[in-house]
Design brief:
Elements (H helix, E strand, L loop, with lengths): L2 H22 L1 H8 L3 H25 L5 H21 L3 H28 L6 H30 L1 H22 L12 H6 L4 H21 L2 H8 L7 H23 L3 H22 L3 H16 L2 H11 L4 H28 L6 H23 L20
């Protein structure tokens, strides 16, 4: 395995921790600033929306720039944003910090996916992307539970100081382990990258990403409240329950990456359909502690098992201009996060209870299933055929 993939996974770990750890700390953050649960949830939605902007704007702005310096510059934004969040004296400043940190997210994963795919053989593209995203899943298994525990014991700000330090470590890792990359081919331009969006399948892929992740994170955003208020767990148990969710992410990501190298659309249909079933059963049985534990694990597994396939699918249909489309898909993941967090908050604010975000998530994910079935019926995707349609020089080491 190329050492560069490890470095990219380190960066993904830090960014994933920034995105997800606040979900376990939402009650503490809300109490600290004296705001409601739904208002605190906007620190998640605001982050996700900023990711969408950063994924499109920063990826487009850096299309012709060398990729390694761009990745390092993005990590500087990450460090500054998390440090500001840790220092924030009020809710507004915390939101600004979250937005600054979020701007790097989409471009990092979008550019990083192209780089990762360029470091391995053609038949292993989805697997390479899955390895990079392993950092994101590891953040959920190890980082989020530890970060939640740390925040509960020493204040939520301590967690963001640790995240800032991880950002510094990730910067060093990228600088040391990612090989010097060839400059983007002269034929690569913003106009060429935009041509990818002429494909109806690219747009369908983006819609599936938004809806599939919107459903899962609509349920997950308020999971701390569901587990404590409905399932009957103590607050102190939440960090360790998140380990199960994170374990599901790791397993789902690994399995989904391997299956996507064989059949992308089939993998997506099976995993999304299973996620709909899991969410519906979770909503029905959330009052049972045992059922909640099992559902939490399966939700992470089937939900994140779609990531390598979704990223590979949009890169495939983007043809010879995958970078901006790849970044747009990362933005779509986070647009889904924002949609899910907002929709779940609406359910809670309407007095529908702490299982309402899960029901809403099941409905949104069901819509994703309909879209991918329609997209697959229109055109079958060969097994992980990304390389044939990707510029070879775009990510080739010097």
């Amino acid at each position: 395995m190329p050492a560069g993939l490890i470095a990219l996974a380190i960066g993904a770990f830090g960014i994933g921790l920034t995105e997800f750890v606040i979900m376990g700390l939402l009650p503490e953050v809300a109490a600290s600033y004296g705001v409601s649960e739904s208002a605190a949830g906007w620190l998640i939605s605001g982050y996700a929306l900023a990711v969408v902007v950063g994924a499109l704007v920063l990826t487009a702005a850096t299309t012709r720039l060398p990729r390694k310096p761009v990745l390092l510059g993005l990590l500087v934004l990450f460090i500054v944003g998390n440090a500001l969040t840790a220092l924030a004296p009020d809710y507004g400043t915390a939101m600004v910090g979250r937005i600054i940190a979020a701007l790097c997210h989409g471009a990092f994963f979008g550019i990083g996916s192209v780089v990762a795919a360029g470091l391995v053989a053609p038949a292993k593209k989805a697997g390479a992307i899955a390895i990079m995203f392993t950092g994101l899943t590891a953040a959920n298994v190890f980082g989020v539970p530890f970060g939640t525990f740390l925040g509960q014991q020493f204040g939520w700000r301590s967690t963001f100081w640790v995240i800032s330090a991880i950002g510094v470590l990730a910067f060093i890792g990228i600088a040391a382990l990612v090989p010097a990359l060839a400059d983007p081919d002269d034929s690569i331009s913003l106009r060429r990258e935009l041509r990818a969006f002429r494909s109806g399948q690219v747009w369908l892929s983006l819609v599936v990403t938004v809806l599939a992740f919107g459903g899962m994170f609509g349920a997950f955003t308020y999971i701390a409240y569901t587990l404590t208020e409905v399932s009957g767990f103590a607050d102190a148990a939440v960090p360790w329950l998140l380990v199960l969710f994170g374990a599901g992410l790791v397993i789902g990501n690994a399995v989904g990456g391997r299956l996507a190298d064989r059949a992308i659309d089939r993998t997506l249909i099976v995993f999304i359909a299973a996620l709909v079933v899991v969410l519906a059963l979770f909503a029905l049985l959330a009052g049972s502690a045992v059922a909640a534990v099992v559902a939490l694990f399966l939700m992470g597994g089937f939900g994140f098992g779609t990531v390598p396939a979704l990223q590979s699918r949009v890169m495939h249909f983007a043809g010879g201009a995958p970078t901006l489309a790849s970044g747009a898909n990362i933005g779509a993941f986070n647009l889904g996060n924002a949609l899910g967090a907002w929709a779940g908050g609406v359910g809670i604010s309407a007095g529908l209870g702490y299982t309402s975000p899960i029901w809403i998530g099941a409905l949104i994910t069901g819509a994703a299933l309909v879209v991918i079935v329609v997209a697959a019926a229109r055109m079958r995707v060969p097994a992980a055929d990304v390389e044939e349609r990707m510029p070879a020089a775009a990510a080739a080491p010097r």
